[in-house]
Amino acid sequence: MDIKQFSVDRSKYDQADEHTPAFVAKPGLTKELVIEISKKKNEPEWMLQKRLQGFELFQKTKIPVWGPDLSQLDLNNIVYYIDPNAKETDSWDEVPEEIKKTFDRLGIPEAEKTALGGVGSQYDSSVVYHKIKKDLEDKGVIFENMDTAVQKYPELVKKYFMTSCIPVNDHKFIMLHAAIWSGGSFIYVPQNVKVDLPLQAYFRMNAQRSGQFEHTLIIVDKGAQLHYVEGCSSPLYSNNSLHAGCVELHVLEGARMRYSSIENWSKNVYNLNTKRAIVHKNAVVEWLNGNNGSQCTMLYPCSILIGEGARSDSLGIAFANTGQNQDTGAKVIHAAPRTSSTIRAKSISKGGGVSSYRGSVVVTKNATDTKSSVTCDALLIDNKSISNTYPFMKIDTNKVDIVHEASVGKIGEEEIFYLMSRGLTEEQAIQMVVSGFIEPVVKALPLEYAVELNKLIEMEMEGAVG
């Protein structure tokens, strides 16, 4: 695919629209704010108690120091809740004009007219638009704003929300998330129902010094299938912002779930997202992640294979430019016999950017006949950029087949010279090499997102010559 055929407009990502929110919390996290959020959402007592548990744990837990430097993230300067002054609607015409302008530039919800089964759009702390095709509703598929799901499906939400998959006490930023989460997606696919068109959610963090903490909870019942797509963006400000979302996937026996995500946060955002799946007998989960933008990203989608014959496949690309630290990877826990997993991680570093693969493969003693393959490929555009690899493997049984490969390459003068001898400019030659490097990720994405990822990479590659 020739990425030069697509126009690039940085303003569609970096421009913030003027909009007057209904409620903006003061910077910093307090118990009173946690209670106020729960009260505004008219939540049941059990959810309030879960929030307060998260708050108390967050207060006494230190910021992790094992990964990228988080010392510049001032948690007391973050605004943790912003109500965008817009009621949720299933009619795009009813969305406030200022908010609509933002999503129109990003192509939301235009995509639902062609290739999607449903769309949700969140602006700061609240979902403003949500719609699902009627034929999916008729099959019993539930696709709701997470806040709405707490009201409409309390027993189902209570059973799965931050229990076995990602408990409240998991780590400091999950504790924070539990305290002040807002919005997100709730999906339930009934037994043997196959959702042919992807469901999509788009999250926009528009305010300065803000935080966004959407919660995605998906249950794919026995024999069912689903492809869910998430996109994220924010404008560029001088002050730091924080994204600490949470994704919980429950893939039941014989089910299949693909989760695709393109995250394009601006370079003042700390992206500290947590994504995890519990995968049952003969079920399959597929992770597809593209990480671009953000000052710092710490993201390692994790699959816990608890059923015999369960499988996890993870494919991701991270791009680190000047002043960026992209610390990404994947984790798999093999906890049952005859489980299998693949991890393919790709990274590009340019302008002194730092990209790191940080992954983990754990095989328990009863997970016999397990197969796992890990491949890490890094591409350095210049001499000042950095690529790191931090693999971890813990194997507690001998009956396994485990492979790990890592490679780091740099665009060489010989290949550039060869491509230029075929009539390409130096810039076009570099773009061609990069396009070939990211091709496996692009091919796995829906067309609209493949185009978008190509455009984002092209933007980052501008000025690579010289």
Can you offer a commentary on this structure?
The protein has 466 residues and is α/β, with parallel strands linked by helices. The chain has one domain. Helices cover 23% and strands 36% of the residues. It is built from eleven helices and 26 strands. The strands form three sheets. Strands 5, 6, 8, 9, 11, 12, 14, 15, 17, 18, 20, 21, 23 and 25 form a 14-stranded mixed β-sheet that branches. Strand 3 and strand 4 form a beta hairpin. The N terminus is likely disordered.
* Principal-axes shape call: globular
Can you give the mean pLDDT?
82
Cα-based radius of gyration, to the nearest Å: 22 Å
Overall structural domain count: 1
Low-confidence stretches: 1-13
Largest sheet: 14 strands, mixed
- Between the first and last Cα atoms, what is the distance in angstroms? 25 Å
Number of helices: 11
* Overall helicity: 10-25%
The beta-strand count equals: 26
Quickly give the structural class.
alpha/beta
Strand content: 35-45%
Features:
14-stranded mixed β-sheet; alpha/beta; disordered N terminus; 23% helix
Topology:
Elements: H1 11-14, E1 23-24, H2 31-40, H3 45-59, E2 82-83, H4 97-105, E3 118-123, E4 126-132, H5 134-138, E5 142-145, H6 146-152, H7 154-160, H8 172-180, E6 184-189, E7 199-204, E8 211-212, E9 215-220, E10 225-233, E11 241-243, E12 246-251, E13 256-265, E14 269-271, E15 274-279, E16 284-293, E17 296-299, E18 302-305, E19 311-320, E20 325-328, E21 331-334, E22 340-349, E23 354-363, E24 370-380, E25 386-395, E26 400-410, H9 413-421, H10 426-444, H11 447-461
Parallel strand pairs: 3-7, 6-9, 7-10, 8-11, 9-12, 10-13, 11-14, 12-15, 13-16, 14-17, 15-18, 16-19, 17-20, 18-21, 19-22, 20-23, 21-23, 22-24, 23-25, 24-26
Antiparallel strand pairs: 1-2, 3-4, 5-6
Helix pairs in contact: 2-3, 3-8, 9-10, 10-11
